[in-house]
Amino acid sequence: MIELKNISKIYKTNNGEIAAVKDVNLTIEKGEIFGVIGYSGAGKSSLIRLLNGLEKPSTGSVSVNGQEISSISGKQLRNARQKISMIFQHFNLLWSRTVEENIAFPLEIAGVPKQNRDTRVKELIELVGLKGREKSYPSQLSGGQKQRVGIARALANNPEVLLCDEATSALDPETTDQILELLLDINKRFGLTIVLITHEMHVIRKICHRVAVMEAGQVVEEGKVLQVFQNPQAPITKNFVIQVSGAKESKESMEQILQNYPTGKLVKLTFVGSKTEQPIISHLIKEFNVEVNIVHGNISQTANGPYGTLIVHVDGEIQNVQKAMELLDSLEIQTEVIEND
Ligand SMILES: Nc1ncnc2c1ncn2[C@@H]1O[C@H](COP(=O)(O)OP(=O)(O)OP(=O)(O)O)[C@@H](O)[C@H]1O
Fold it and tell me: Which residue spans adopt a coiled-coil conformation according to this UniProt entry (predicted)?
């Protein structure tokens, strides 16, 4: 669906050249929700602007649905862009137009006759949950409602791809979740391909199927969301995963536990899918006669199923602790000994 081949983007400034994107290769499948995560300055915005031809790559090619976006311009590019919509962090609404007039705007530009426009606007208002607010102006809406208008407007011409540029970064956590659920619903109902950029792992966890992690212009890690959560490789990815697993907060408890129990092992277990529902801890205690003290636990849902982390202190006869570890390994649970005595 979307293919980026050897993409680099170099900006020429008065202070020299800035390589914002460096040799990125990505393939995004039709109907997928693909997330790009990175800290500020990682090159995410530059990358997403290359996808709809707002920027041209310095090297490499971008193709969307078989059409090479990086090499077209003028009318051809404008037509292609009708199928690649975008929503923004600050909504980019027209402040002098009502909700329905904002949503009708791209239909007017596309030359859709008035009657068809009205029908489509009604459909979209229903879809994004804004019934009753048709005549409101953006200044009369909450942040979440403004983004709903942004989404309706982006969907007006039935795009094939929706690009989301930090679409929930200006919203509170609860509204963020509601908007993410709306995007997930739209993806499921219409098979719309969604590419989103964010600096929040929570957003990736909640709706993305696959993720690419960007650092200093490069993609340093890429994979299915559950796999990346279970087994992050790059240090930056590990930091992002800690953002949502909350493991950092438990450092103090771990130190306390280690002080209180100078023997045994402190282990972090990461498990996904049906393994989150197995009675693993009681099994360890019964089978190997070990003591298991839970230091920290967390379970959360991703678009592809549950994901959980558990930090436990396992103590007992050395060989029993060892056998308990072997069992965990055999269950294909990610096991990481945090500190050894
Ligand atoms: N139009 C531009 N001209 C010159 N430099 C730019 C331009 N746009 C981005 N850059 C530079 O390219 C690098 C990547 O910026 P980019 O905005 O793509 O990153 P980002 O990950 O989206 O960060 P943020 O979330 O802060 O926007 C930065 O060093 C930035 O200063």
Answer: 314-341
CB 124 within 8 A of CB 177: no
ipTM field: 0.95
Domain range holding 141? 2-243
Mean pLDDT of 102-110: 94
Residue 39 pLDDT greater than 90, yes or no = yes
| pLDDT at residue 332 is higher than 80 | no
Residues 267, 339 contacting (CB under 8 angstroms): no
Cα–ligand 1 centroid distance for 215 (angstroms): 12
Best mutation site among 13, 37, 46 for ligand 1 pocket (most ligand atoms within 8 Å of CB)? 46
- CATH number at 215 reads 3.40.50.300
For residue 65, the 8-state DSSP code is T
Measured in Å, residue 58 CA sits from the centre of ligand 1 at 15
Chosen domain end from 188, 217, 243: 243
Q: Which helix (H) or strand (E) holds 126?
A: helix 114-127
Residue 333 belongs to domain with CATH number: 3.30.70.260
Q: How far apart are alpha carbons 172 and 88 in whole angstroms?
A: 15
**Which of 198, 227, 243 represents a domain boundary (last residue)?**
243
Is residue 38 lining ligand 1, measured as CB closer than 6 Å?
A: yes
**Total structural domains in the chain?**
2
Residue 12 alpha carbon, nearest atom of ligand 1? 4
CA 252 to chain centre: 29
Are 200 and 124 in the same domain? Answer: yes
Amino acid at 308: G
Cβ of 44 below 6 Å from ligand 1: yes
Chain segment 196-230, per-residue pLDDT in tens:
999 999 999 999 999 999 999 999 999 999 888 88
Q: What is the pLDDT of residue 254?
A: 66
